[in-house]
Amino acid sequence: MSKSLGNTLLAHDLIQDQPGEVLRLALLSAHYRQPLDWTAHGVEQARKYLDRLYKILGDLKDVPAVDCGVPDGVMDALCDDLNTPMAMAAINDLTRTETDPARLKGGLLAIGHLLGLLQADPQEWLGYGVASGGDAAAIDALVQERQDAKKNKDFTRADEIRKTLEAQGIMIEDTPAGPKWKKA
Fold this sequence. Notes:
Blueprint: H1 11-14, H2 20-28, H3 40-59, H4 72-79, H5 84-97, H6 101-115, H7 122-126, H8 135-151, H9 155-167, E1 170-175, E2 178-183
Antiparallel strand pairs: 1-2
């Protein structure tokens, strides 16, 4: 990049399109000694990675976190010449191998605190129940009507409501705790 060529990217311009956490993770995806290949695809991958971590935290919202500190694999990677790509791999390993939900949540929160990630509320980050203006109440009413239709075994009406919401750009996710919706 060169300022004279006009192909520079400024943080205050980038933050208008993506949350700061996404940009931070995109920057952390490469080792500091290596050149950073900044692409829209890389930023999108960082967003998807954070979405996955926030989904895990959202699923663990009722689980009390155990204060276990930053997991050893992540800390070892960071102590090895600030190897952030290896730290991201250690985070992936943690999400796949940790069987204790309280330790998983505690570990993710400790990592997030250390790296400046996972600072938002998972439900807000993922966009569940968030709509512009007064749309949220109307959407909630339709989701409840869909639940009632399913309870009464009127699956045709339930499917009609789902299609109506999809046409409005609303995605419904059926969970064991009940349906959740978000903007698609």
